[in-house]
């Protein structure tokens, strides 16, 4: 019988405890609800996240009806949120305005997690937080159902970094995760026993993120928006003031300069690179968004670099539709951080798309379309591209 670590419950030869950071303090209490089957999965990550967070707890089960801890949390729904996607989920930006004191994280495969949520009305009555990850998952030892899916520990690292404003602090939790992934892959690659499952390498295919962009290209609309956004704490909601979009497959384009309805933030004209006179002469928000709705076709999907403007678009009344995170796909193509969209265009040697709109939005929609075209081309490739060496500020 193999000797197990009493802390991480992994075989001592695969123990990751030495890679865990000192337990991190957080303002947010994290409550893990783990599906019982996930508890028996050796490569699960909820326990790893729990061991890294001082202000956390973990409970196993499917039906938590009558569970004293959940009943207690449900008494104060304004201070609790569930990390789970859905049409009614609020954005991270909205959650940051009123951050939850307690965050419930459901751990399991996607079907298991959905079952836990559906079985427990107490969870259905709590607000949900959804987000688009800033980087692709490194969970190379487990298949995820979609390109935006990440492991439990990656999701927790992402959401706590956004809610508490210290992403580098929580990134230290991933050291143990990466160690576990690398260790597991090394063991799988050297297995020779006939009764063990072995890795079989088939023909090379482009990463899923790139293939899916290529497959959806005809229906993709590249979208970028600028906002009149006041500093955190000003209690003035952000609003869209410049919206641009293009349909690369057909060359169709859309632009709207929207007159601000709220006080203009001092930095708005500087950031959007449009004068106050130009902004105030813009059309009404209702008229602009109605035109954008007419521009979109029923099967269109939006391709974005970040989700801030996308959230403002939904809040403005535009019907929600699928959206693709081009930044995530770019990070996969670069095998590293994507950075800003203009820098990504340079790294990928993207095609020279003509600039057709004014302001910073004109610069960024041009770069975004260029990056998308490169990713689509790579998604259709029959052999791997030469790896791009990312430049740093120390290089000449």
From TrEMBL:
<keyword id="KW-0808">Transferase</keyword>
<dbReference type="Pfam" id="PF03942">
    <property type="entry name" value="DTW"/>
</dbReference>
<keyword id="KW-0949">S-adenosyl-L-methionine</keyword>
<dbReference type="GO" id="GO:0008033">
    <property type="term" value="P:tRNA processing"/>
</dbReference>
<feature type="domain" description="DTW">
    <location>
        <begin position="1"/>
        <end position="189"/>
    </location>
</feature>
<protein>
    <recommendedName>
        <fullName>tRNA-uridine aminocarboxypropyltransferase</fullName>
        <ecNumber>2.5.1.25</ecNumber>
    </recommendedName>
</protein>
<dbReference type="InterPro" id="IPR039262">
    <property type="entry name" value="DTWD2/TAPT"/>
</dbReference>
<dbReference type="GO" id="GO:0016432">
    <property type="term" value="F:tRNA-uridine aminocarboxypropyltransferase activity"/>
</dbReference>
<keyword id="KW-0819">tRNA processing</keyword>
<comment type="similarity">
    <text>Belongs to the TDD superfamily. DTWD2 family.</text>
</comment>
<dbReference type="InterPro" id="IPR005636">
    <property type="entry name" value="DTW"/>
</dbReference>
